[in-house]
Design a protein that fits this description.
The chain contains five helices and six strands, in the order βαβαβββααβα. The termini are far apart. The chain has one domain (about 5-155). The chain has about 160 residues and is an alpha+beta fold. It is elongated, with a radius of gyration of 16 Å.
Length: about 160
């Protein structure tokens, strides 16, 4: 029976040098939400008869996102590598807006927080659309899954 989804996700912890409590919370939420509900179909693995669920390991190597896809028994199915050049600015913008947001929730008005959160969601949504474009022809997924994956890509870029 086909089950095209991510059942387990792992981040390359060696890639992540530092993260604060706010970012750690974002990571936990993104992983929890991703496991609870996602759509993920690596096309080469599916064509070879591996229909999910999948295990996914994310890392950044030499400026590229590496997605290692395995089956439920942790047998390697395929590796997808994406250039991250187009994501540099959205990642930088997302970090800047998130920092403003975290500061605002501690001392700003509700309207100020809402304005910053709208900007944060806008950057996040644009980056998720970009990720969907980069995955086209490699992995079929939906917008919500791409948004959560972008959050995890950002976590992998934290350098301190």
């Amino acid at each position: 029976m086909a089950d095209p989804r991510i059942a387990h996700i792992e981040l390359d912890e060696a890639t992540i040098i530092w993260r604060n409590a706010d970012i750690e919370q974002e990571r936990r939420i993104a992983i929890f939400d991703l496991i609870e509900e996602n759509s993920f179909k690596p096309l080469r693995a599916a064509a070879a008869g591996h229909l999910g669920p999948y295990r996914l390991r994310l890392s950044v190597e030499d400026g590229r996102l590496v997605l290692i896809v395995s089956d439920g028994d942790a047998q390697h199915l395929e590796t997808v590598i994406l250039g991250l050049g187009r994501f540099r600015r959205p990642i930088r913008d997302y970090f800047a807006i998130c920092e403003s947001y975290y500061q605002a929730i501690r001392r700003a008005t509700a309207q100020e927080i809402e304005t910053i959160d709208m900007a944060r969601r806008g950057v996040h949504n644009d980056a998720a659309m970009m990720l969907l474009e980069k995955l086209e022809g490699k992995i079929e997924t939906d917008f919500a899954t791409a948004r959560r994956l972008f959050t995890l890509i950002c976590v992998l870029h934290i350098k301190g």
